[in-house]
Design brief:
The complex is a heterodimer. Chain A is α+β, with helices and mostly antiparallel strands. Chain A is about 25% helix and about 20% strand. The longest helix of chain A has 21 residues. Chain B has one domain.
Chain lengths: ~325, ~190
C-alpha cells in the first residue's frame, strides 16, 4: 500500500465519483448515469452479491486503485453489458435476469489428475490466497473491449495448492447449470450443450497473469459478471474467461470447449487475441472500446497482439503457427 | 390515396416510424446504457426491416382471409421496409465494420452478399413503387414485385447464416414466411414466373 493519500481515499466514494463525473462527463453521460443510478437503487440487492464474510474481510483490506485510473470502463457498462448465455442470448439478459442466481453456498468440484480432489467451498478456495486488484484490458471476440479492475487470486496459486499430477497437461472449467435460476439454459432452439466449458493448457493456467476473479471495482462480482468466482485470462478473447465456475478438472487431453465445439472455424481452443487472424465474419484488427467510442462508436482502437500482453505471454507460444492455432 | 383516410394513414406511418424513433431515443436520449451503438443499431434496424417486411406481405393475406383491406397502405409499408434495410446496411458498412474496407469485407463474407442481394431486390421494388411505374410496366409490374418473395427467402438465409446459438427469432420468422407462402399457394410462384 503506497503511503500517498489521494482525494479518493478520504472523500466518501459516491461524492468523489460524482465530482469526477461532473468534471469528466458530457451532458448525456451525466444524464445516463443519473437515470441509471436511480434505476439501480430499486433493484441492486439481488443483482449485486454482498460476498461471504471471508471475501468481505479480504476486500476491506484492499485499497482499490481503479478510481484513479481514467482508462477504466465505468462499472455500469461492465455490469450491464455481458455475454452470459445461461441467462439469455442478449447482452442485457444477464443484468436483467441473473438476480435470482444463488451464489451462496457455492461449491467447486476439483477432479481428474490431481492430488487433492474434492468439493471445495468458495471460502476454502480463497481463504489462504492473497487478494489483488488487477486492471486488465478485456477484449471480446466480437471486437469490443473494456478495461476492468478485477479483484481476484492468481489461478496458479490455487492450482499449486491442488497439486495436479505431472501428466495433467490441461485444466478444464465448467459453469454452473441451474435450470430454475438460469432461464437461458432451458431455451429451446439454443445450440449450446450445457454446461458451458472452457479450458487452458497447464502452462497458460500457471501464468501469473491468469486470474480467478471474485470481484471487480473493489466489490464482490455482480451475478451478471459471473459471481462468485470466474476466470480472467486477459490475453485471450473474453469467451475463454468462463463465469460462475463449479468445476475444475485436470486432464491429459485437450478438453472440449463450448465455442470451439460450436464453430471450430470461428473460435479456436487457444483464442489468443490476434489482430492478424480475422474472425471469418469480421476483422479483428481494431476494437470498439466500450462505452461509446465517440459518436455512434465510430472511433476504434488498434487491437494488439495478445491484447497488449505479448511481452509477458508470447513465450508460451514460441514456435507455434498462430494462424493455425488461433 | 391518403386523402380518404388521412388519420389511418398517419397512424400507420407513425407505427412504422416508431422503431426508428425508439432507436434514436435509446442511443441519444441518455436514459439507456448502449455500450455498443454500432451493434445495437445494426440489429435493431434489421429487426425493424424484418417486421416491416412481414407486415407488407401480410396486407394481401389480411384482405383475402379476413376481409381487412389495407392495400392502400402497402406501398408505405414496403418503402419503410426498404428504408430500414438501407439503414441496416449502412450501419453495417459504416458503423459495424471499419468502413474504409467495408466493400472488401463484403466480398469476403458470403452471408453479407446474400443480405446485399435482398437489399438490391428491395431497391428495385422501391424504385418501381410509384403509380407511374405501375402504369408504365403494366403486367410486368406484378411480376417484378413478386420478387419480394425471393428477397424474403434471402433475408431468412442471411439471418440463419449469422446466428450461432439462439435460433428462436429466425425460427419464428421462418414460420411466418412458411404460413404466408402456404396461404398464397401456387399464386406466388406463378406470378414470379410470369
Amino acid at each position: 500500500m503506497p503511503s500517498i493519500l489521494k482525494e479518493c481515499h478520504v472523500t466518501p466514494r459516491e461524492i468523489f465519483l460524482n465530482r469526477r463525473r461532473f468534471i469528466q462527463g458530457g451532458v448525456s453521460a451525466a444524464l445516463a448515469m443519473t437515470a441509471l443510478s436511480g434505476a439501480r437503487h430499486a433493484v441492486a440487492d439481488d443483482r449485486a452479491w454482498s460476498g461471504t464474510p471471508v471475501l468481505r474481510e479480504k476486500l476491506s483490506t484492499l485499497s482499490p486503485a481503479w478510481e484513479r485510473d481514467d482508462r477504466v470502463t465505468p462499472p455500469q457498462y461492465h455490469r450491464e453489458y455481458a455475454n452470459f448465455y445461461e441467462f439469455g442470448p442478449n447482452k442485457d439478459d444477464p443484468w436483467e435476469r441473473a438476480g435470482q442466481l444463488t451464489v451462496e453456498p457455492w461449491k467447486v468440484r476439483v477432479d481428474g489428475l490431481v492430488d487433492k480432489p474434492g468439493d471445495y467451498w468458495f471460502d476454502d478456495l480463497i481463504r489462504e490466497a492473497a487478494l489483488e486488484e488487477r486492471i486488465y484490458r478485456f477484449r471480446c471476440v466480437e471486437a469490443w473491449s473494456m478495461v476492468v479492475p478485477w479483484v481476484g487470486i492468481s489461478l496458479a496459486s490455487v492450482i499449486k495448492r491442488l497439486q495436479p499430477h505431472s501428466d495433467a497437461r490441461y485444466v478444464a472449467f465448467e459453469t454452473a447449470v441451474k435450470r430454475d435460476e438460469m432461464p437461458g439454459v432451458s431455451r429451446a432452439l439454443v445450440r449450446i450443450d450445457w454446461p458451458y466449458r472452457e479450458g487452458l493448457r497447464m502452462d497458460e493456467a500457471l501464468h501469473p497473469l491468469a486470474l480467478l476473479a471474485v470481484g471487480a471495482y473493489g466489490e464482490p462480482l455482480y451475478k451478471a459478471n459471473g459471481a462468485p468466482i470466474r476466470l480472467v485470462v486477459p490475453w485471450k478473447y473474453g469467451f475463454k474467461s468462463i463465469k460462475s465456475i463449479v468445476r475444475i478438472h485436470f486432464t491429459r487431453e485437450q478438453p472440449e470447449t463450448t465455442w470451439n465445439t460450436l464453430a471450430p472455424d470461428e473460435y479456436g481452443f487457444y483464442a489468443n487475441v490476434n489482430p492478424e487472424v480475422d474472425h471469418p465474419r469480421w476483422s479483428q484488427r481494431t476494437e470498439r472500446r466500450i462505452p461509446g467510442g465517440g459518436f455512434l462508436g465510430l472511433s476504434r482502437e488498434e487491437t494488439l497482439p495478445f491484447n497488449g500482453y505479448a511481452e509477458q505471454v508470447a513465450g508460451l507460444y514460441a514456435g507455434m503457427d498462430l494462424r493455425r492455432w488461433y | 390515396m391518403q386523402s380518404r383516410f388521412p388519420v389511418v394513414w398517419w397512424c400507420i406511418w407513425l407505427a412504422a416510424a416508431s422503431p426508428l424513433g425508439w432507436m434514436l431515443w435509446v442511443v441519444f436520449g441518455g436514459a439507456h446504457v448502449v455500450a455498443d451503438p454500432p451493434k445495437y443499431l445494426t440489429l435493431a434496424l434489421a429487426d425493424a426491416a424484418v417486421i416491416l417486411l412481414g407486415c407488407t406481405l401480410m396486407v394481401s393475406t389480411l384482405r383475402r382471409r379476413m376481409g381487412i383491406n389495407l392495400i392502400r397502405y402497402r406501398r408505405m409499408l414496403g418503402l419503410w421496409t426498404f428504408a430500414y434495410a438501407t439503414l441496416h446496411m449502412a450501419a453495417v458498412l459504416t458503423l459495424l465494420w471499419e468502413w474504409q474496407d467495408g466493400l472488401v469485407t463484403l466480398s469476403k463474407r458470403p452471408y453479407a452478399l446474400v443480405g446485399a442481394s435482398a437489399w438490391l431486390i428491395l431497391l428495385l421494388l422501391a424504385a418501381t413503387s410509384t403509380r407511374r411505374a405501375q402504369k408504365r410496366l403494366r403486367r410486368a409490374w406484378g411480376r417484378i414485385h413478386a420478387w419480394v418473395y425471393v428477397a424474403m427467402v434471402l433475408v431468412l438465409i442471411h439471418w440463419f447464416w449469422l446466428v450461432r446459438v439462439d435460433y428462436t427469432l429466425p425460427a419464428v420468422a421462418l414460420l411466418v414466411a412458411v404460413v404466408l407462402l402456404a396461404e398464397r399457394g401456387k399464386g406466388a410462384w406463378r406470378r414470379l414466373m410470369g
